[in-house]
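Notes from hallway chat w/ T.B., transcribed later so I don't forget. T.B. wanted the structure written out for a chain they're using in a teaching module, and asked if we could keep both sequence and C-alpha cells in one place. Agreed to drop them here.
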Amino acid sequence: MYKWKRIAVVGILLIGILLGFAIWRGFPPFQLRSSQFPGLLSNAITPNPQSVRIEIVKSERKLVLYQEEKMIGIFKIALGFSPRGDKGQEGDGKTPEGSYAICYINDETPYVYFYGLSYPQEKDAKKGLEKGLISQEEYQNLMNASKNKSIPSWYTSLGGEVGIHGGGNGADWTKGCVALSDTDILILKKYLMIGTPVHIFP
C-alpha cells in the first residue's frame, strides 16, 4: 500500500510540474488573455506581412502588431533578465532599444520560432566603437551589414542573436530577446517576414 501511495504522490508531482511548464510556455488551452493583453483584436484579420510592423514597449512588457498602420494586436512579452536600459554588450541581459528589422528566421528552435533582429545596428556600432568594445574592422563590417540590410555579425563584444521567440512570458528570463507565449509566437508567424520593421522603446 505504501508503495502505491509513493507512486501516486510522484505522479501528482509530475503532473503538477508538467502543468506548470505548460502554463509558463502558454500552450493551449492555457493562454491567458486580458483587456491589457488581448492578443489579436479581431480573428477576422487577413494577414498581410508586406504591410506589418511591430512596436515593443519594454516598460509595459507589450508587443503591438500593426498592419497597414492599424493596430491589430497587443501581446504580453518577457525581456532580458536585466531589462532596464539599452543593450550595450554581450552578457548584460538587456534587450536593445531602437529601430531594427527581422533579418533571420529559425523554425528549428526549442522556442518554436526565432525571428532574429538586425542588432547591432548603426547606432549600436557607433557606441561600441566609442567605448572601445569593437575594433574599426568590426565597426565597418556592422555598418556595411546595416547599409546592405543583411544579418550583422552576432559575434562581437556587443552581443547578438537577439530576437523575438516563444518560450513563455511569465517573467523576464531571456539573455536579451523578446519572449512570448508559444501560442502567441504561432499567431505572429502568420504576420512576420524578413524585413518586418521592429521598433523597441524603453
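Follow-up for T.B.: The beta strands are 39-40, 52-57, 62-67, 70-76, 98-106, 114-117, 163-165, 178-179, 197-201. Might be a good example for the class.
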